[in-house]
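Good morning N.,

You mentioned wanting to compare the apo and holo forms, so I went ahead and generated the holo version with MU-OXO-diiron. This is what I fed in:
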Amino acid sequence: MLKGKMAEALNKQINEEFFSAYLYLSMSGYFESIGLKGFANWMMVQYKEEVDHGMKFYNYLLSQGADIKLLPIAEPPHTWDSPLNAYEETLKHEQHITKCINDIVDLAEELKDRATFNFLQWYVDEQIEEEENDREIIDKLKLVGDNKSGLFMLDKDLSARIYKPLATNEEV
Ligand code: FEO
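and this is what came out, ligand included:
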């Protein structure tokens, strides 16, 4: 059984993950609007993964007999200055999510909540990957600079990203 403070923190994190989904869906729309379908695909996959991250918290709360208390999702921005700016904002957002996860890990330690501490390790690992992916794309965008053919090649690369539902390779 979860302590009230932990249930509140995990419910808040569902909101963070669903806001992330909203943000990346908005970015996908932005990339469509500037004709970069590969980038739009990458962001659409990211949107779906964030919904999975939120649902993993949702299912954990239920498995612990805690109440689900969904919060309002804030409006994300609708446009960015450039693909580089969008990915820099993505990295900034993921660094914020990493901090949120680390804060909940700290709370689990404080409450001696071993089950939640273990559960959160998946997210700790996932955040390393999330930030690394963003940094990689930022580096490539910086290399490409104003070179249009470089940008289209990168767009082609990003069109290959495929969504793999979390439920198929592990328990959500
Ligand atoms: Fe669910 Fe991108 O953190």
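The chain has six helices and no strands.

Happy to go through it together on a call whenever suits you.

Best,
F.
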